[in-house]
Amino acid sequence: MLTLQCPYCGVQADETELAPGYEAHLKRYGPGSSPEEFESYMFARKNPKGVHFERWRHAYGCGKWFLAARDTNTLEVFGTYPAQSSAPPADLVAKIKLKRPEWEGYK
Predict the structure, then answer these.
(1) Which pLDDT tens digit goes with each residue over 54-82?
(2) Do 21 and 66 touch, CB atoms closer than 8 A?
(3) One MF term in GO for this entry (predicted)?
(4) Half-sphere exposure (Cβ direction) of 95: Cα atoms closer than 13 Å
Protein backbone atom coordinates (compact mmCIF):
# COMPACT_ATOMS: atom_id res chain seq x y z
CA MET A 1 0.00 0.00 0.00
CA LEU A 2 1.20 3.51 -0.84
CA THR A 3 1.79 5.77 2.18
CA LEU A 4 2.57 9.47 1.83
CA GLN A 5 3.26 12.10 4.47
CA CYS A 6 1.23 15.28 4.07
CA PRO A 7 3.71 18.20 4.19
CA TYR A 8 1.04 20.47 5.70
CA CYS A 9 -0.42 18.51 8.61
CA GLY A 10 2.36 15.92 8.95
CA VAL A 11 0.01 12.91 8.89
CA GLN A 12 1.25 9.65 7.35
CA ALA A 13 -1.71 8.84 5.13
CA ASP A 14 -2.28 5.70 3.14
CA GLU A 15 -3.75 5.88 -0.33
CA THR A 16 -7.32 5.37 0.94
CA GLU A 17 -7.11 8.85 2.58
CA LEU A 18 -5.70 10.49 -0.53
CA ALA A 19 -7.02 11.52 -3.93
CA PRO A 20 -4.65 11.40 -6.92
CA GLY A 21 -4.16 14.49 -9.03
CA TYR A 22 -1.83 12.85 -11.52
CA GLU A 23 1.29 14.47 -12.99
CA ALA A 24 2.92 17.42 -11.18
CA HIS A 25 4.64 20.49 -12.63
CA LEU A 26 2.60 20.67 -15.83
CA LYS A 27 2.83 23.81 -17.93
CA ARG A 28 -0.76 24.95 -18.14
CA TYR A 29 -2.18 26.45 -21.32
CA GLY A 30 -5.34 28.49 -21.43
CA PRO A 31 -6.89 31.26 -23.53
CA GLY A 32 -4.62 32.41 -26.33
CA SER A 33 -2.76 29.11 -26.62
CA SER A 34 -2.61 27.10 -29.80
CA PRO A 35 -4.85 24.05 -30.17
CA GLU A 36 -1.74 21.83 -30.09
CA GLU A 37 -0.52 23.36 -26.80
CA PHE A 38 -3.93 22.99 -25.18
CA GLU A 39 -4.27 19.42 -26.45
CA SER A 40 -0.84 18.48 -25.05
CA TYR A 41 -1.79 19.98 -21.67
CA MET A 42 -5.14 18.20 -21.54
CA PHE A 43 -4.22 14.78 -22.88
CA ALA A 44 -0.46 14.14 -23.08
CA ARG A 45 0.88 12.77 -19.82
CA LYS A 46 4.12 11.08 -18.91
CA ASN A 47 3.80 7.49 -17.82
CA PRO A 48 7.32 6.66 -16.71
CA LYS A 49 8.64 3.48 -15.27
CA GLY A 50 10.71 4.89 -12.43
CA VAL A 51 10.85 8.27 -10.70
CA HIS A 52 7.70 10.34 -11.17
CA PHE A 53 6.37 13.57 -9.66
CA GLU A 54 2.67 13.55 -8.84
CA ARG A 55 -0.07 15.68 -7.29
CA TRP A 56 -2.04 14.31 -4.33
CA ARG A 57 -4.83 15.69 -2.16
CA HIS A 58 -5.16 14.78 1.50
CA ALA A 59 -8.89 14.22 0.94
CA TYR A 60 -9.79 12.71 4.32
CA GLY A 61 -7.43 14.92 6.30
CA CYS A 62 -6.53 18.59 5.94
CA GLY A 63 -7.86 18.66 2.35
CA LYS A 64 -4.78 20.33 0.88
CA TRP A 65 -3.00 19.49 -2.35
CA PHE A 66 0.67 18.50 -2.23
CA LEU A 67 3.30 16.98 -4.49
CA ALA A 68 5.14 13.70 -4.13
CA ALA A 69 8.13 12.02 -5.75
CA ARG A 70 7.92 8.25 -6.01
CA ASP A 71 9.12 5.33 -8.06
CA THR A 72 6.23 3.96 -10.11
CA ASN A 73 7.95 0.61 -10.41
CA THR A 74 8.60 -0.09 -6.72
CA LEU A 75 6.17 2.41 -5.08
CA GLU A 76 9.12 3.77 -3.05
CA VAL A 77 8.29 7.30 -1.89
CA PHE A 78 11.23 9.72 -1.93
CA GLY A 79 9.37 12.59 -0.31
CA THR A 80 6.54 15.09 -0.43
CA TYR A 81 6.51 18.86 -0.68
CA PRO A 82 4.04 21.78 -0.95
CA ALA A 83 1.92 22.12 -4.08
CA GLN A 84 3.01 25.73 -4.64
CA SER A 85 6.55 24.59 -5.50
CA SER A 86 7.49 25.26 -9.12
CA ALA A 87 10.13 22.50 -9.08
CA PRO A 88 11.13 19.70 -6.70
CA PRO A 89 13.26 20.88 -3.73
CA ALA A 90 17.02 20.46 -4.20
CA ASP A 91 17.33 18.18 -1.16
CA LEU A 92 14.67 15.85 -2.58
CA VAL A 93 16.41 15.75 -5.98
CA ALA A 94 19.70 14.94 -4.20
CA LYS A 95 17.99 12.14 -2.25
CA ILE A 96 16.61 10.62 -5.45
CA LYS A 97 20.00 10.83 -7.22
CA LEU A 98 21.65 9.14 -4.24
CA LYS A 99 19.23 6.20 -4.42
CA ARG A 100 18.89 6.14 -8.22
CA PRO A 101 22.28 7.18 -9.71
CA GLU A 102 21.03 6.35 -13.23
CA TRP A 103 18.17 8.87 -12.90
CA GLU A 104 18.55 11.63 -15.46
CA GLY A 105 17.02 14.28 -13.25
CA TYR A 106 13.92 16.41 -13.19
CA LYS A 107 12.86 17.83 -16.56
Answers:
(1) 999 999 999 999 999 999 999 999 999 99
(2) no
(3) sarcosine oxidase activity
(4) 14
| Residue 75: HSE in the Cβ half-sphere, 13 Å Cα cutoff | 6
Residue 94's CB: how many other CB atoms inside 10 A?
A: 10
Kindly report, residue by residue over 32-54, the tens digit of the pLDDT. Answer: 889 888 888 888 877 788 999 99
- For domain 3-99, which architecture applies? 2-Layer Sandwich (3.30)
C-alpha 47/C-alpha 20 separation (Å) is 14
Instruction: Tell me the DSSP string of 40-103.
Output: HHHH-----SSEEEEEEE-TTTT--EEEEEEETTT--EEEEEETT-SS--HHHHHHHHHH-TT-
Per-domain residue ranges for the chain? 3-99
